[in-house]
């Protein structure tokens, strides 16, 4: 079954004028790896997803079909208050947290 990722990978690869073989060469893979991604049989690791996005000049969100996704409003009161602190105080708090 083709996933949104599989469809988008193929779309952006073609927009860039790349063959599966050329894209695979950039990743140091065989062309069958790209064919498997585009058919939905396999999915890349997170690091390879990032590399694919860089090579194709798109965001990982674009590859995953997450463009235009609305993010929830911040609901973490601690984080909201932390972000209101001066940067100097944020740094001190961050250092203290990592010492714990």
From TrEMBL:
<dbReference type="GO" id="GO:0003677">
    <property type="term" value="F:DNA binding"/>
</dbReference>
<dbReference type="Pfam" id="PF01381">
    <property type="entry name" value="HTH_3"/>
</dbReference>
<protein>
    <submittedName>
        <fullName>Helix-turn-helix</fullName>
    </submittedName>
</protein>
<dbReference type="InterPro" id="IPR001387">
    <property type="entry name" value="Cro/C1-type_HTH"/>
</dbReference>
<dbReference type="InterPro" id="IPR010982">
    <property type="entry name" value="Lambda_DNA-bd_dom_sf"/>
</dbReference>
<keyword id="KW-0238">DNA-binding</keyword>
<feature type="domain" description="HTH cro/C1-type">
    <location>
        <begin position="9"/>
        <end position="63"/>
    </location>
</feature>
């Amino acid at each position: 079954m083709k996933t949104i990722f599989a469809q988008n990978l193929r779309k952006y690869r073609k927009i860039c004028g790349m063959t599966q073989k050329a894209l695979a060469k950039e990743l140091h893979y065989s062309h069958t790896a790209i064919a498997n991604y585009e058919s939905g049989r396999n999915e890349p690791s997170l690091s390879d997803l990032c590399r694919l996005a860089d090579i194709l000049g798109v965001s990982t969100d674009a590859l995953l079909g997450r463009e235009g996704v609305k993010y929830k409003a911040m609901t973490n009161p601690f984080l909201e208050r932390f972000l209101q602190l001066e940067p100097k105080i944020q740094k001190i708090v961050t250092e203290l947290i990592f010492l714990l």
